[in-house]
Structure formats: C-alpha cells, structure tokens
Amino acid sequence: MADSLGISEAQLLALFLCSVLWGMLLITSAYCLRYLLWESDERGGKLKSALTIHWLMLAMALVLLALCTFDVALLLMRAIQAFIFYTGPGGSAAEFTGLTNWVNILESCNIALGKLISDAILVYRCWIISNRSITLITFPTLLWLGEVAMVIYIIFAEASQRDNPEVLLTEVAELQTAITVAWSMSLINNVITTGFIVYRIWIVEKENSLYANRTRTSSGAQLPSLFRRNARRK
After folding, report:
1. Which of 92, 107, 159, 180 would give a disulfide with 74, using CB separation of 3.0 to 4.6 Å?
2. What ranges do the domains of the chain cover?
3. What is the per-residue pLDDT for 39?
4. What does DSSP assign to residue 32?
5. 3-class DSSP state for residue 38?
C-alpha cells in the first residue's frame, strides 16, 4: 500500500487527518482559554481581572490556534488548486510538488512559525519552573536558535528554486538535509524541555505529599494529649 500511495493521495489523507486534529484542537483550546481567563471552580469560577491574566500565554495560545486554522485552510486551498483549477502537465502531483508555488511556500512559513513559537514557549516554561535559571535553558535556547537558522535557510532555498520547482524530487540534498536537521533539533528540544518540566512537577508533587503526610502524622500525635487535657478539665 505504501508503494501505491502517491503524493496526491497523501495530500488528501493529510487534509483529512489535519481536519480531525483541528477539531480536537478546538476542544483543547476551549479548555485552555477557560483556565487562562476564568478562576478555578474552588475560587468561584469568576472571570479573572486584567491584572491576573497571563497575557503572554493567552496571546501565544490564540496565535497557535490561528496558525493551525490557517494551515488547514492552506491545505484545502492546495487541494482545490491541484484537483480543480490546475490543467498543466503532470496533473495534481505536479502542483503538489511545485514548492515554488506561493501557497506551498506560505504553508512552509506557517508550519515553521508555529513550530518555533511552540518550542519557544516550552523553553520559557522551563525558565519559569527552574526559578529563572539561565544555565538550565542554555542548551535548549541554542537548539531553538539553530532551528531559526535552519528555517530561514529552508524558506530561502524553496523560494529561490524557480528553475527547479520539483526541488524535493531531485538531487537537492542540501535542502533535504536542512529539513531533517531542523526537525531533529525541534524533537530533541521538545524531549529535553518536556522531560525537565515533568521532572520538576514530579518533584513538587513528591514534596507536597511528604509535607501532607508529616502534617497528618503530627496532628495525629497531638490527639491523645488533647484528649487527656480535656479529661483533666472535666
């Protein structure tokens, strides 16, 4: 089946999967906005004041939602252009492989921008939970800067290949290598930052549980003395 799956079929499959995931994103984004804009149920569930809203996280959440929505729209536009409006040689496959098409370049920019923003948020969260330690985020920051450099190179290479529109289907090893390096750095950055965040949360939960156990133990040890004092008073 993998041998029979051409680029046109792959694009239709990508459009379907992205539409499903976009629907899931809407639900998770609604929950995200709920906790960014409203107090928890224990505090009454009221709308937060402007001073207590984390405006940076709110802005980034809305930007990422907009970028994902734009990405689905671009996929739909590419499918319409390839299957309906394109009448040149090669059929829909030629339209999908033509990376110098402005829609394809815009889609690459959109994906790259969303990835850079999401990775930057992870680095920022690591910086916050590490008590703003520059040392702990030095390597993730360097990886993120490497991603920025690779993205700039990839977009420039795609836009400048006017004489070679099917750039990914030819022997342009430099562009393929740059794409692989960019995604590899992003993957490593995600593993490091997410792992550190999970580790810090686990440490805090462990300390909280130990503190709660000590509190219950000390309270239980004081109960017999309290009973004796009450008995003497009676």
Report:
1. 107
2. 1-97, 99-234
3. 87
4. H
5. strand
